[in-house]
Amino acid sequence: MTVRLKLLIAALLAGGVLAAALLAPASSRRYCATRAFMGTEVSITVISSRDPGPAMDAAFKAIEAAEGRLSRFKPDSDVSRINRLGIGRSMDISRETFRIIEKSIATSRISDGAFDVTVLPLIKLYPYGKEGKLALPERGAIDEAKKRIGSDKIVLTALDDKKLEIGFKVDGMEVDLGGIAKGYAVDTAIAALRHGGITSGIVEAGGDLYCMGRRPDGSKWTVAVRNPRGPGGVATLCLANLAVATSGDYERFFVVDGRRYSHIIDPRTGMPVARGVASASVVASDCETADALATAVSVLGAEKGMELIERLPGVECMMLVEDAGGGLTEVRSSSWEGAVGP
Ligand code: AMP
Ligand code: MG
Q1: 214 is a domain residue
Q2: Pick from 168, 202, 223: which residue ends a domain?
Q3: pTM value?
Q4: Is 41 part of any domain?
Q5: What CATH number does the domain containing 148 carry?
Q6: Is the CB of 100 under 6 A from ligand 1?
Q7: Is there a single domain that holds both residue 151 and residue 183?
Q8: How many domains does one find in the chain?
Q9: pLDDT digit string, tens, across residues 301-337
Q10: Distance between CA atoms of residues 277 and 323, nearest Å
Q11: 326 and 287 Cβ atoms separated by less than 8 Å
Protein backbone atom coordinates (compact mmCIF):
# COMPACT_ATOMS: atom_id res chain seq x y z
CA MET A 1 0.00 0.00 0.00
CA THR A 2 1.26 3.46 -0.74
CA VAL A 3 2.39 5.78 2.01
CA ARG A 4 -0.33 8.35 2.44
CA LEU A 5 0.35 11.91 3.41
CA LYS A 6 -2.91 13.78 3.49
CA LEU A 7 -1.90 16.67 5.66
CA LEU A 8 1.35 18.51 5.79
CA ILE A 9 2.12 19.17 9.40
CA ALA A 10 3.39 22.70 9.30
CA ALA A 11 4.34 22.50 12.94
CA LEU A 12 6.80 19.75 12.12
CA LEU A 13 8.68 21.69 9.48
CA ALA A 14 12.20 22.30 10.74
CA GLY A 15 11.80 26.08 11.09
CA GLY A 16 8.55 25.90 13.03
CA VAL A 17 9.87 23.24 15.31
CA LEU A 18 13.02 25.17 16.05
CA ALA A 19 11.00 28.26 16.86
CA ALA A 20 8.79 26.22 19.19
CA ALA A 21 11.79 24.73 20.95
CA LEU A 22 13.39 28.12 21.46
CA LEU A 23 10.23 29.50 23.00
CA ALA A 24 9.86 26.55 25.35
CA PRO A 25 10.98 26.64 28.97
CA ALA A 26 14.71 25.93 29.03
CA SER A 27 14.33 22.26 29.81
CA SER A 28 11.41 21.60 27.45
CA ARG A 29 12.35 19.95 24.16
CA ARG A 30 10.66 18.57 21.12
CA TYR A 31 10.93 14.86 20.35
CA CYS A 32 9.75 13.23 17.14
CA ALA A 33 9.62 9.64 15.88
CA THR A 34 8.05 7.99 12.85
CA ARG A 35 7.29 4.31 12.31
CA ALA A 36 5.38 2.34 9.67
CA PHE A 37 2.02 0.85 10.66
CA MET A 38 -1.28 0.12 8.91
CA GLY A 39 0.22 0.64 5.45
CA THR A 40 1.14 4.22 6.30
CA GLU A 41 3.49 6.30 8.40
CA VAL A 42 2.67 7.13 11.99
CA SER A 43 4.51 10.07 13.54
CA ILE A 44 4.54 11.13 17.13
CA THR A 45 5.80 14.54 18.20
CA VAL A 46 5.88 15.57 21.84
CA ILE A 47 7.10 18.51 23.86
CA SER A 48 8.52 17.34 27.15
CA SER A 49 10.91 18.48 29.83
CA ARG A 50 12.01 14.91 30.56
CA ASP A 51 12.75 11.83 28.47
CA PRO A 52 9.45 10.92 26.77
CA GLY A 53 10.93 7.67 25.37
CA PRO A 54 8.86 5.27 27.51
CA ALA A 55 5.62 7.17 26.80
CA MET A 56 6.35 7.31 23.05
CA ASP A 57 7.19 3.59 23.02
CA ALA A 58 3.90 2.88 24.80
CA ALA A 59 2.07 5.01 22.21
CA PHE A 60 3.62 3.08 19.29
CA LYS A 61 2.81 -0.19 21.09
CA ALA A 62 -0.82 0.93 21.37
CA ILE A 63 -0.90 1.54 17.60
CA GLU A 64 0.71 -1.81 16.90
CA ALA A 65 -1.89 -3.50 19.11
CA ALA A 66 -4.71 -1.66 17.32
CA GLU A 67 -3.35 -2.80 13.96
CA GLY A 68 -3.02 -6.35 15.30
CA ARG A 69 -6.72 -6.40 16.15
CA LEU A 70 -8.18 -4.39 13.29
CA SER A 71 -6.16 -5.03 10.11
CA ARG A 72 -7.89 -7.16 7.51
CA PHE A 73 -4.45 -8.02 6.12
CA LYS A 74 -3.24 -9.74 9.29
CA PRO A 75 -4.56 -13.32 9.35
CA ASP A 76 -4.84 -13.47 13.16
CA SER A 77 -6.53 -10.11 13.67
CA ASP A 78 -10.04 -9.89 15.12
CA VAL A 79 -11.18 -8.58 11.73
CA SER A 80 -9.70 -11.54 9.79
CA ARG A 81 -11.27 -13.98 12.23
CA ILE A 82 -14.60 -12.17 11.87
CA ASN A 83 -14.28 -12.33 8.07
CA ARG A 84 -13.94 -16.14 8.20
CA LEU A 85 -17.07 -16.45 10.31
CA GLY A 86 -19.87 -17.14 7.81
CA ILE A 87 -23.53 -17.29 8.73
CA GLY A 88 -25.11 -18.99 11.74
CA ARG A 89 -22.03 -18.70 13.92
CA SER A 90 -20.84 -16.06 16.29
CA MET A 91 -17.52 -15.52 17.99
CA ASP A 92 -16.08 -13.72 20.99
CA ILE A 93 -14.35 -10.44 20.28
CA SER A 94 -12.31 -8.04 22.35
CA ARG A 95 -14.03 -5.15 24.06
CA GLU A 96 -12.21 -2.63 21.86
CA THR A 97 -13.11 -4.32 18.56
CA PHE A 98 -16.71 -4.64 19.77
CA ARG A 99 -16.80 -0.94 20.62
CA ILE A 100 -15.34 0.17 17.28
CA ILE A 101 -17.83 -1.93 15.35
CA GLU A 102 -20.60 -0.53 17.54
CA LYS A 103 -19.39 2.99 16.70
CA SER A 104 -19.20 2.03 13.00
CA ILE A 105 -22.80 0.82 13.05
CA ALA A 106 -23.87 4.04 14.79
CA THR A 107 -22.03 6.10 12.13
CA SER A 108 -23.76 4.07 9.44
CA ARG A 109 -27.14 4.90 11.00
CA ILE A 110 -26.55 8.66 11.27
CA SER A 111 -25.16 8.79 7.72
CA ASP A 112 -28.08 6.88 6.14
CA GLY A 113 -25.77 3.98 5.39
CA ALA A 114 -23.09 6.06 3.62
CA PHE A 115 -20.49 4.86 6.13
CA ASP A 116 -20.59 1.08 6.12
CA VAL A 117 -17.79 -1.20 7.27
CA THR A 118 -19.36 -4.17 5.45
CA VAL A 119 -18.42 -2.87 1.96
CA LEU A 120 -15.48 -5.29 1.62
CA PRO A 121 -17.22 -7.69 -0.84
CA LEU A 122 -17.67 -4.64 -3.11
CA ILE A 123 -14.10 -3.38 -2.61
CA LYS A 124 -12.83 -6.79 -3.75
CA LEU A 125 -14.62 -6.42 -7.11
CA TYR A 126 -12.66 -3.32 -8.15
CA PRO A 127 -9.12 -3.17 -9.58
CA TYR A 128 -7.45 -1.26 -6.71
CA GLY A 129 -3.68 -1.42 -6.95
CA LYS A 130 -3.81 -2.86 -10.46
CA GLU A 131 -2.28 -1.35 -13.59
CA GLY A 132 -2.87 -1.55 -17.33
CA LYS A 133 -6.23 -1.42 -19.06
CA LEU A 134 -8.77 -1.66 -16.27
CA ALA A 135 -12.50 -2.33 -16.37
CA LEU A 136 -15.42 -2.00 -14.00
CA PRO A 137 -17.06 -5.22 -12.78
CA GLU A 138 -20.29 -6.48 -14.36
CA ARG A 139 -23.51 -5.06 -12.89
CA GLY A 140 -24.55 -8.62 -11.94
CA ALA A 141 -21.44 -9.06 -9.77
CA ILE A 142 -22.10 -5.72 -8.03
CA ASP A 143 -25.74 -6.68 -7.37
CA GLU A 144 -24.67 -10.05 -6.01
CA ALA A 145 -22.09 -8.45 -3.66
CA LYS A 146 -24.66 -5.87 -2.51
CA LYS A 147 -26.73 -8.69 -0.98
CA ARG A 148 -23.86 -9.17 1.48
CA ILE A 149 -23.58 -5.49 2.43
CA GLY A 150 -25.27 -3.68 5.30
CA SER A 151 -24.29 -2.73 8.84
CA ASP A 152 -27.83 -3.66 9.91
CA LYS A 153 -26.90 -7.28 9.16
CA ILE A 154 -24.14 -7.32 11.79
CA VAL A 155 -25.28 -8.83 15.08
CA LEU A 156 -23.44 -7.60 18.17
CA THR A 157 -24.34 -9.25 21.47
CA ALA A 158 -23.12 -8.27 24.91
CA LEU A 159 -23.97 -11.37 26.94
CA ASP A 160 -22.40 -9.83 30.01
CA ASP A 161 -19.60 -7.39 30.68
CA LYS A 162 -16.94 -9.85 29.60
CA LYS A 163 -18.62 -11.91 26.89
CA LEU A 164 -18.99 -9.88 23.71
CA GLU A 165 -19.97 -11.58 20.48
CA ILE A 166 -20.36 -10.78 16.80
CA GLY A 167 -22.21 -12.61 14.06
CA PHE A 168 -23.67 -11.95 10.59
CA LYS A 169 -27.22 -12.35 9.32
CA VAL A 170 -26.10 -13.13 5.77
CA ASP A 171 -23.48 -15.56 4.53
CA GLY A 172 -20.32 -14.17 2.95
CA MET A 173 -20.30 -10.87 4.85
CA GLU A 174 -16.98 -9.28 5.74
CA VAL A 175 -15.85 -6.12 7.50
CA ASP A 176 -13.13 -3.62 6.66
CA LEU A 177 -12.39 -1.02 9.33
CA GLY A 178 -10.08 1.00 7.03
CA GLY A 179 -12.42 4.00 7.28
CA ILE A 180 -12.16 4.31 11.08
CA ALA A 181 -9.12 2.34 12.31
CA LYS A 182 -6.47 5.01 11.80
CA GLY A 183 -8.47 7.53 13.82
CA TYR A 184 -8.95 4.97 16.57
CA ALA A 185 -5.23 4.16 16.54
CA VAL A 186 -4.37 7.85 16.91
CA ASP A 187 -6.71 8.10 19.92
CA THR A 188 -5.13 5.06 21.62
CA ALA A 189 -1.65 6.54 21.10
CA ILE A 190 -2.75 9.88 22.59
CA ALA A 191 -4.22 8.02 25.59
CA ALA A 192 -0.90 6.21 26.06
CA LEU A 193 1.04 9.49 25.90
CA ARG A 194 -1.30 11.10 28.46
CA HIS A 195 -0.93 8.05 30.69
CA GLY A 196 2.84 8.58 30.46
CA GLY A 197 2.51 12.18 31.66
CA ILE A 198 2.77 13.92 28.25
CA THR A 199 0.48 16.92 27.84
CA SER A 200 1.63 18.46 24.54
CA GLY A 201 2.16 16.87 21.12
CA ILE A 202 0.72 15.48 17.90
CA VAL A 203 0.03 11.91 16.80
CA GLU A 204 -0.52 11.51 13.09
CA ALA A 205 -1.39 8.37 11.12
CA GLY A 206 -1.50 8.81 7.35
CA GLY A 207 -2.86 12.34 7.65
CA ASP A 208 -5.40 11.68 10.43
CA LEU A 209 -4.17 13.37 13.56
CA TYR A 210 -4.83 14.65 17.04
CA CYS A 211 -3.22 17.78 18.47
CA MET A 212 -2.79 17.47 22.23
CA GLY A 213 -2.46 20.56 24.37
CA ARG A 214 -0.69 23.61 22.97
CA ARG A 215 2.75 24.53 21.78
CA PRO A 216 5.27 25.74 24.37
CA ASP A 217 4.55 29.39 23.53
CA GLY A 218 0.87 28.83 24.32
CA SER A 219 -0.31 28.90 20.72
CA LYS A 220 -2.31 26.14 19.07
CA TRP A 221 -0.67 23.57 16.81
CA THR A 222 -0.90 24.42 13.12
CA VAL A 223 -1.53 21.85 10.40
CA ALA A 224 -2.18 22.36 6.71
CA VAL A 225 -4.77 20.59 4.57
CA ARG A 226 -3.11 19.30 1.44
CA ASN A 227 -4.23 20.36 -2.01
CA PRO A 228 -5.85 17.20 -3.44
CA ARG A 229 -4.91 18.13 -7.01
CA GLY A 230 -1.41 19.53 -6.68
CA PRO A 231 1.47 20.39 -4.39
CA GLY A 232 1.18 22.43 -1.22
CA GLY A 233 -1.67 23.14 1.15
CA VAL A 234 -5.06 24.78 0.70
CA ALA A 235 -5.85 25.76 4.29
CA THR A 236 -4.10 26.12 7.64
CA LEU A 237 -5.84 24.82 10.75
CA CYS A 238 -4.97 25.82 14.32
CA LEU A 239 -5.89 23.04 16.74
CA ALA A 240 -5.61 22.42 20.49
CA ASN A 241 -7.04 19.21 21.94
CA LEU A 242 -8.81 18.49 18.66
CA ALA A 243 -8.52 15.90 15.91
CA VAL A 244 -8.73 16.30 12.16
CA ALA A 245 -9.11 13.50 9.61
CA THR A 246 -9.10 13.89 5.85
CA SER A 247 -10.55 11.56 3.24
CA GLY A 248 -9.61 12.18 -0.36
CA ASP A 249 -10.10 10.63 -3.77
CA TYR A 250 -6.40 11.19 -4.51
CA GLU A 251 -4.99 8.63 -2.09
CA ARG A 252 -5.89 5.30 -3.56
CA PHE A 253 -7.84 5.22 -6.78
CA PHE A 254 -8.01 3.64 -10.21
CA VAL A 255 -8.85 5.15 -13.58
CA VAL A 256 -11.19 3.61 -16.17
CA ASP A 257 -11.76 5.44 -19.46
CA GLY A 258 -10.20 8.60 -18.05
CA ARG A 259 -12.46 8.66 -15.01
CA ARG A 260 -11.00 8.52 -11.49
CA TYR A 261 -12.63 6.10 -9.01
CA SER A 262 -11.84 6.60 -5.31
CA HIS A 263 -11.08 3.93 -2.70
CA ILE A 264 -14.31 4.89 -0.98
CA ILE A 265 -17.37 2.88 -1.99
CA ASP A 266 -20.89 4.26 -2.07
CA PRO A 267 -22.75 1.34 -0.45
CA ARG A 268 -26.03 2.48 -2.00
CA THR A 269 -24.85 2.17 -5.61
CA GLY A 270 -22.14 -0.42 -5.03
CA MET A 271 -19.79 1.84 -7.01
CA PRO A 272 -16.69 3.75 -5.91
CA VAL A 273 -17.26 7.46 -5.37
CA ALA A 274 -16.45 8.86 -8.81
CA ARG A 275 -16.80 12.61 -8.80
CA GLY A 276 -17.65 15.23 -6.23
CA VAL A 277 -15.77 15.46 -2.96
CA ALA A 278 -12.06 15.61 -3.83
CA SER A 279 -11.21 15.94 -0.15
CA ALA A 280 -13.12 16.24 3.11
CA SER A 281 -11.47 17.26 6.39
CA VAL A 282 -13.47 16.73 9.57
CA VAL A 283 -12.54 18.26 12.93
CA ALA A 284 -13.85 16.55 16.08
CA SER A 285 -12.88 16.04 19.70
CA ASP A 286 -11.55 12.55 18.94
CA CYS A 287 -9.85 11.18 15.85
CA GLU A 288 -12.02 8.07 15.52
CA THR A 289 -15.13 10.23 15.08
CA ALA A 290 -13.32 12.55 12.66
CA ASP A 291 -12.04 9.60 10.59
CA ALA A 292 -15.41 7.85 10.27
CA LEU A 293 -17.22 11.08 9.42
CA ALA A 294 -14.63 12.15 6.81
CA THR A 295 -15.29 8.88 4.99
CA ALA A 296 -19.06 9.26 5.44
CA VAL A 297 -19.26 12.78 4.01
CA SER A 298 -17.07 11.78 1.06
CA VAL A 299 -19.87 9.39 0.11
CA LEU A 300 -22.73 11.77 0.94
CA GLY A 301 -21.36 14.69 -1.09
CA ALA A 302 -21.35 18.38 -0.25
CA GLU A 303 -25.02 19.01 0.45
CA LYS A 304 -26.04 15.92 2.41
CA GLY A 305 -22.58 15.68 3.99
CA MET A 306 -22.77 19.21 5.38
CA GLU A 307 -26.35 18.59 6.58
CA LEU A 308 -25.00 15.68 8.64
CA ILE A 309 -22.07 17.73 10.02
CA GLU A 310 -24.36 20.62 11.02
CA ARG A 311 -26.51 18.20 13.05
CA LEU A 312 -23.52 17.01 15.10
CA PRO A 313 -22.35 19.19 18.00
CA GLY A 314 -18.61 19.85 18.17
CA VAL A 315 -17.95 18.58 14.64
CA GLU A 316 -16.85 20.80 11.74
CA CYS A 317 -15.94 20.07 8.14
CA MET A 318 -14.27 21.59 5.11
CA MET A 319 -14.68 20.03 1.68
CA LEU A 320 -13.09 20.63 -1.67
CA VAL A 321 -15.74 19.79 -4.22
CA GLU A 322 -14.83 19.14 -7.86
CA ASP A 323 -17.11 20.36 -10.62
CA ALA A 324 -17.51 18.78 -14.06
CA GLY A 325 -14.77 21.02 -15.46
CA GLY A 326 -12.27 19.90 -12.79
CA GLY A 327 -12.43 23.15 -10.76
CA LEU A 328 -12.41 22.92 -6.95
CA THR A 329 -14.83 24.80 -4.71
CA GLU A 330 -14.28 25.05 -0.96
CA VAL A 331 -17.31 24.40 1.26
CA ARG A 332 -17.14 24.96 5.04
CA SER A 333 -19.51 24.11 7.90
CA SER A 334 -20.99 27.06 9.78
CA SER A 335 -18.53 27.12 12.73
CA TRP A 336 -15.43 25.95 10.85
CA GLU A 337 -13.52 29.22 11.27
CA GLY A 338 -14.22 29.35 15.00
CA ALA A 339 -13.01 25.78 15.50
CA VAL A 340 -9.75 26.05 13.53
CA GLY A 341 -8.84 29.72 14.03
CA PRO A 342 -5.74 30.81 15.99
P1 AMP B 1 -10.65 6.81 4.72
O2 AMP B 1 -9.31 6.98 4.13
O3 AMP B 1 -10.71 6.99 6.20
O4 AMP B 1 -11.71 7.59 4.02
O5 AMP B 1 -11.05 5.28 4.55
C6 AMP B 1 -11.17 4.65 3.30
C7 AMP B 1 -11.17 3.17 3.53
O8 AMP B 1 -12.39 2.80 4.20
C9 AMP B 1 -11.17 2.37 2.24
O10 AMP B 1 -9.87 2.11 1.80
C11 AMP B 1 -11.91 1.11 2.65
O12 AMP B 1 -11.04 0.28 3.37
C13 AMP B 1 -12.94 1.63 3.63
N14 AMP B 1 -14.21 2.06 3.00
C15 AMP B 1 -14.48 2.26 1.68
N16 AMP B 1 -15.75 2.70 1.51
C17 AMP B 1 -16.29 2.79 2.76
C18 AMP B 1 -17.57 3.17 3.25
N19 AMP B 1 -18.55 3.58 2.44
N20 AMP B 1 -17.77 3.14 4.59
C21 AMP B 1 -16.79 2.75 5.44
N22 AMP B 1 -15.56 2.36 5.04
C23 AMP B 1 -15.31 2.38 3.72
MG1 MG C 1 -12.11 7.66 7.48
Answers
A1: yes
A2: 168
A3: 0.92
A4: yes
A5: 1.10.3980.10
A6: no
A7: no
A8: 2
A9: 999 999 999 999 999 999 999 988 888 999 999 999 9
A10: 9
A11: no
